[in-house]
Amino acid sequence: EKRDQRYPRNVVNNQKYNFFTFLPGVLFNQFKYFFNLYFLFLACSQFVPEMRLGALYTYWVPLGFVLTVTIIREAVEEIRCYMRDKEVNSQIYSKLTARGQEIGSSFLSNQRVPADMIFLRTSEKNGSCFLRTDQLDGETDWKLRLPVSCTQRLPTASDLLQIRSYVYAEEPNIDIHNFVGTFTREDSDPPVNESLSIENTLWASTVIASGTVVGVVLYTGQELRSVMNTSNPRSKVKEIISSFINYLFIKQIDMATLFAYR
C-alpha cells in the first residue's frame, strides 16, 4: 500500500522547553516529585503564625538555592542541546534530483546518516559498506550493510534517476535490529521484486565508516528509529528519596495525630 500522508519534517529537536515554557516547565518538573512538594508545603506553612517553627529564611533560603541551581543547570543543558541540534540540522548533503524532485542523498565516509534510509548504491568495489552504530545502540563494532542488488548493478549513480521503482515498508516502529520491506522496480521486464532486511538499511544517527553511499529516505522526524527509542531515564536516587520523604510525611502525620489527642 502506497503511503499518502506527508512525511514529518526531518528536524532533530532534543530540547525539552522553549522560551515560554522553560520556567513553568522546570518548576513543574521539580514539584511533581513529592519530596520537593513536601518542602514547599513546609515553607509555605511558616507564613501561618500558629504553624511557624522558626525564621522564614531557614525554610525559603535552602529551597530557593536548590531551585536556582536547578534552573541554571537546566538552562545550560538547554543551550547545549540547542547548539548540538543546530549543528546536526545544518549539515549539508548532496542530493540526486530530477526536475526538482528529490530522489535520494549521497554520503561520504565519516558522515552522519540524517534519516532512516534504504541503501541503494555504494562506491566500494566489494559492493558493501560498514556503519558505526555506537550513537544508536551503544555497540562499538561496525555493522555490514548491503545495497539493493538491482540498483547497485546500475552503471552510475545518476542512472537511479532513470528507473521507476517503489519501496514497500513496514510502519515506523522502535525495532532497530529488524526490518521487513520490498523494493520493486517496475520499468524492467519482468518487474523486479527484492526483499529488504536490516542489512539494506541506513538508520539515522549512524555514521558511514567506508566509501560513499546513496540511499532513499524512508522515515523522517518523529518516525526515526533513533527518536522512537529515546526515553527519559528514571532516577533511582530520586525514587529512593521520594520513598523516604513519603515515609517521613506519614510518620509526622501519625505523631501529630497522636499528640493532638493526648
Question: How would you characterize the overall build of this protein?
Answer:
With 262 residues, this protein is an alpha+beta fold. 35% of the residues lie in helices and 20% in strands.
Supply Rg: 27 Å
Number of strands: 11
Task: Give the H and E element order.
Answer: HHHEEEEHEHEEEEEEHH
Strand order of the largest sheet: 1-2-11-3-9
* Count of DSSP-assigned helices: 7
Helix content: 25-40%
Secondary structural class: alpha+beta
Overall shape = elongated
What is the overall pLDDT average? 81
Unreliable segments (pLDDT under 50, ≥5 consecutive)? 97-104
How far is the N terminus from the C terminus? 76 Å
| Largest sheet properties | 5 strands, antiparallel
Strand content: 15-25%
Question: What's the gist of this structure?
Answer:
The protein has helices spanning 22-31, 34-45, 57-89, 134-137, 149-152, 225-228, 236-260, and strands spanning 94-98, 101-107, 116-122, 129-132, 143-145, 165-169, 181-185, 192-196, 201-202, 207-208, 213-219.
Any descriptors?
262 residues, alpha+beta, five-stranded antiparallel β-sheet, three-stranded antiparallel β-sheet, 7 helices, 11 strands
Ordered list of secondary-structure elements with their pairings:
Blueprint: H1 22-31, H2 34-45, H3 57-89, E1 94-98, E2 101-107, E3 116-122, E4 129-132, H4 134-137, E5 143-145, H5 149-152, E6 165-169, E7 181-185, E8 192-196, E9 201-202, E10 207-208, E11 213-219, H6 225-228, H7 236-260
Antiparallel strand pairs: 1-2, 2-11, 3-9, 3-11, 4-5, 4-10, 6-7, 7-8
Helix pairs in contact: 1-3
GO molecular function: ATPase-coupled intramembrane lipid transporter activity
Domain P-type ATPase N-terminal: 3-60
Keywords: Membrane, Transmembrane, Transmembrane helix
